Amino acid sequence: MGFHSVIDVLFTDIAPYFKTEVGGAQTHLEGNRLVLTCLAEGSWPLEFKWMRNSTDITEYTPEYRYTITLLNRKDTGLYQCAVRNRMGALIQTRADVRVAYMDNFAELEQRKTVSQGRAAILNPPAVSSYPRPQVTWFRDGFKIIPNHRV
């Protein structure tokens, strides 16, 4: 292998490739900051573009991170990063981002009248949330421990 062949090998362009793949669903709290990172390598310059639910949310830029400073429930979705250089482009597997939130109770009071010995059915309070909230019932200020009767 002569001197010229060594130079050719050193300057061969490398198509972009991902160092890691994102995987699985990730849940973050509403109001928090979220930084998604696209770890890719290949010949420079590399350019990155971000998509949510298959729609572009950025143009191609040298920035490999996508930052949401104040997460909102509408930011829930499937995020992907596309990377390109002069050798080609590649799209990363989806990152399934879910935003956890809980609103206030839509109703504060329920009144039920039942005959003695009959069952009273109380519905959980309506509250918009993700994931579904765990409900704990109290009677006269004391927690009701679930059993065969309750």
What report would you give on this structure?
It contains one helix and 13 strands, in the order H-E-E-E-E-E-E-E-E-E-E-E-E-E. The protein has 150 residues and is mainly β. It has one domain: Immunoglobulin-like, CATH 2.60.40.10. Strands 2, 5, 6, 8, 9, 10 and 11 form a seven-stranded mixed sheet that branches. Strands 1-4 form a two-stranded antiparallel ribbon. A two-stranded antiparallel ribbon has the order 3-7. The N and C termini lie far apart (83 Å).
Topology:
Layout: H1 3-10, E1 17-18, E2 25-29, E3 34-37, E4 40-41, E5 47-52, E6 55-56, E7 65-68, E8 77-85, E9 88-91, E10 95-102, E11 129-130, E12 138-139, E13 142-143
Query: Can you tell me the residue ranges where pLDDT is under 50 for at least 5 consecutive residues?
Result: 2-9
| Rg estimate, integer Å | 27 Å
The counted number of beta strands is 13
Measured between the Cα atoms of the first and last residue, the distance is 83 Å
Name the shape in a single word: rod-shaped
The helix-strand sequence is HEEEEEEEEEEEEE
Average pLDDT, all residues? 86
Number of domains: 1
CATH topology: Immunoglobulin-like
The CATH superfamily is known as: Immunoglobulins
